[in-house]
Design brief:
alpha+beta, 12 helices, elongated
Length: about 475
C-alpha cells in the first residue's frame, strides 16, 4: 500500500485539466491590394527605418525618445511587474517551510483541577506533574512545512497564464517603442514641412513689400491709380497674416517632440532651428501580409493575451476537483533550555488533508463560464488586431500612392503657374492687363507652392505610417529586457 501511494500521486500529478493552447489559424490575403511599392521587405530593411531618411537630427530625436520617453518607461515597469507575478505563480507550486521558535512562561492557577494521585511537584521526570500554583517556562524550536499537491494542474495553469502575460507585456513595450519612434518621426517631418512653408511665406512677404514700393512709385508717377496700390497693400497684409498660424503650428510640433523625448515642451526650441530641409522619404517595401503575424508587436501581444486567457480556463476548471495537501511540523520542546536539544525533546505532527468541494451554489462553474467568455473575447481581440493591422498597411500604401500622383500633378501645375505669373507681370508692365491680373497669378502660384510642400510632407509622414503599420523597428529595439 505504501508503494502505491507515490505511484498514484505521480499519475495524478500528470493530469492537467482545461484546454491546451495552440495558436489559432488566421488566414490572411496573399498580397496587399494597394501594394504599388517593391515587395519582399525584410526585418533588416525595416529595422531602424528612421535612419533611412538620412537625417541625423531625426535619428537623434528617435534614439533619445526610446531612452527617455515616459510611456516606454511605464511599459518597462509593467514587464517587471509581470515577471514578479510569474514568480508568485511559480512559488505556489513549491512547498512552504517556515522556522519557528518560542519561549513561553506559564503559571497554573491554584484553583485549577487537582493533581492526579501520585503526581510529583515539578519533578520533570516520568510521572511528574505541574501542580496548581506552579510556574514554568517552555522552550520550542521547529519547522512548519506544507505542500499542496498539484493533482489537476491548477498551479501549472497559473504559471502558464503568468508566463503568457509576461510575454504580452514584453510585446506591449515593443509596440510602445514602435509607436513612440513613429510619433517622433511624424512630428519632426511635420515640423520641417511647416518650417519650409514659413520660409516661403516670409520670402513672399519680402517680394510683396518690394512690389508695394514699386506700385507706390508708379502711383506717384501717375502711371497707375491708387486702387492698384491698395490692392497691393491688401495682398501684402494677407501674406503677412498667413505666417503666424504656421508659426504657432510649428511651435506646437516642437513642444510635442519635447514631451516625446522626455523633456519639457520648450526644451527643443533652440535645437530644432528652421535651417534643415524636409528629408526625402525612403521607399519602404510592403512585404507580405503574413509577415504581420510575426512582425507586428500588437499582434504578438494579443496572441499572448489569448494564451493567458486559455490557461485561466484550466485554473478555474481545477477548482472543481479535490485538492490534497501534506503538512509536517517537527519541533523540539522542553521546559528546560539545557535539555531542549536532547532526543527526548522531539515532537512532531504529520498529516494530510483533502478538500473536495461539494456544494458552492454554482460559484465554481460560473467562474469557468467567466473564463470561457474571457478567452472568447481575447480570441476576438486577436483577430481584430490582425484585421486592423492589414487595414493600417492598406491605408498607408493607398495614401502614399495617391500623394505621389497628386505631387506629380501639383509640380506640373506649379511650373505652369510660375510661367503664367511671369507673363502677367510682363503684360502688366506693358500696360496690357491690370494689376489685379498679376495678383491673381501670384496668388495661384503661392497656393500651389504651399500645396507642393504639404504633399511632400504628407508622403514622408505616410512613409512613417507604413513603417509603423508593417511593424518595423522592434528587432533592433529588443535590447536587454528590464
Amino acid at each position: 500500500m505504501k508503494r502505491l501511494l507515490p505511484l498514484a500521486a505521480a499519475l495524478l500529478a500528470g493530469c492537467t485539466v482545461g484546454p491546451n493552447y495552440s495558436r489559432p489559424e488566421t488566414p490572411v490575403p496573399p498580397g496587399y491590394a494597394e501594394a504599388h511599392a517593391p515587395a519582399g521587405a525584410t526585418d533588416a530593411e525595416l529595422a531602424l527605418w528612421w535612419q533611412r531618411f538620412a537625417d541625423a537630427q531625426l535619428a537623434t530625436l528617435v534614439n533619445r525618445a526610446l531612452a527617455q520617453n515616459l510611456d516606454v518607461q511605464t511599459a518597462a515597469a509593467r514587464i517587471r511587474e509581470a515577471r514578479a507575478q510569474e514568480r508568485v505563480a511559480g512559488a505556489s507550486a513549491l512547498p512552504e517551510v517556515s522556522a519557528q521558535g518560542s519561549v513561553t512562561r506559564q503559571r497554573i492557577s491554584e484553583h485549577a483541577i487537582p493533581a492526579p494521585p501520585g503526581a510529583v511537584q515539578g519533578g520533570g521526570g516520568p510521572g511528574s506533574f505541574a501542580l496548581p500554583g506552579t510556574e514554568f517556562t517552555t522552550f520550542r524550536v521547529g519547522f512548519d512545512a506544507s505542500w499542496e499537491v498539484d493533482l489537476f494542474g491548477r498551479n501549472r495553469r497559473q504559471i502558464e497564464a503568468a508566463s503568457a502575460r509576461t510575454g504580452a507585456a514584453i510585446w506591449d513595450r515593443r509596440d510602445v517603442q514602435l509607436s513612440v519612434a513613429a510619433e517622433v518621426a511624424d512630428a519632426y517631418l511635420a515640423l520641417r514641412s511647416l518650417q519650409q512653408r514659413i520660409a516661403i511665406a516670409e520670402k513672399e512677404v519680402r517680394r510683396q513689400e518690394r512690389s508695394a514700393s514699386l506700385v507706390a512709385a508708379r502711383v506717384r508717377g501717375g502711371l497707375v491709380t491708387g486702387q492698384d496700390l491698395e490692392q497691393q497693400r491688401s495682398s501684402l497684409a494677407s501674406a503677412q497674416a498667413a505666417i503666424e498660424p504656421l508659426q504657432a503650428e510649428a511651435a506646437a510640433r516642437i513642444h510635442a517632440l519635447g514631451v516625446l523625448t522626455g523633456d519639457t515642451p520648450e526644451a527643443l526650441i533652440a535645437e530644432l532651428s528652421p535651417t534643415a530641409a524636409l528629408p526625402s522619404p525612403p521607399v519602404v517595401p510592403a512585404g507580405l501580409p503574413s509577415d504581420l503575424l510575426r512582425r507586428r508587436p500588437d499582434i504578438r501581444a494579443a496572441e499572448r493575451e489569448l494564451a493567458a486567457a486559455t490557461a485561466d480556463i484550466g485554473v478555474a476548471t481545477a477548482e472543481l476537483y479535490p485538492s490534497f495537501s501534506l503538512s509536517a511540523a517537527p519541533a523540539l520542546v522542553s521546559t528546560a533550555l539545557g535539555s531542549l536539544l536532547e532526543w527526548g525533546s522531539r515532537a512532531f505532527t504529520v498529516g494530510g488533508a483533502l478538500d473536495w468541494p461539494i456544494f458552492d451554489g454554482g460559484r465554481r462553474r460560473a467562474n469557468i463560464d467567466v473564463t470561457n467568455a474571457g478567452q472568447e473575447q481575447a480570441l476576438i481581440a486577436y483577430r481584430k488586431t490582425i484585421l486592423t493591422a492589414l487595414q493600417d498597411v492598406e491605408d498607408a500604401l493607398g495614401e502614399i500612392d495617391n500623394d505621389r500622383s497628386q505631387l506629380a500633378k501639383l509640380e506640373q501645375a506649379l511650373g505652369n503657374a510660375a510661367r503664367a505669373e511671369d507673363i502677367a507681370g510682363t503684360r502688366y508692365r506693358g500696360g496690357l492687363v491690370t494689376y489685379s491680373d498679376v495678383l491673381q497669378a501670384q496668388a495661384n502660384r503661392i497656393s500651389l507652392e504651399g500645396q507642393v510642400i504639404e504633399t511632400r510632407g504628407a508622403i514622408a509622414r505616410d512613409t512613417v505610417a507604413l513603417a509603423k503599420a508593417l511593424g518595423g523597428g522592434w528587432p533592433e529595439l529588443a535590447e536587454a529586457q528590464p
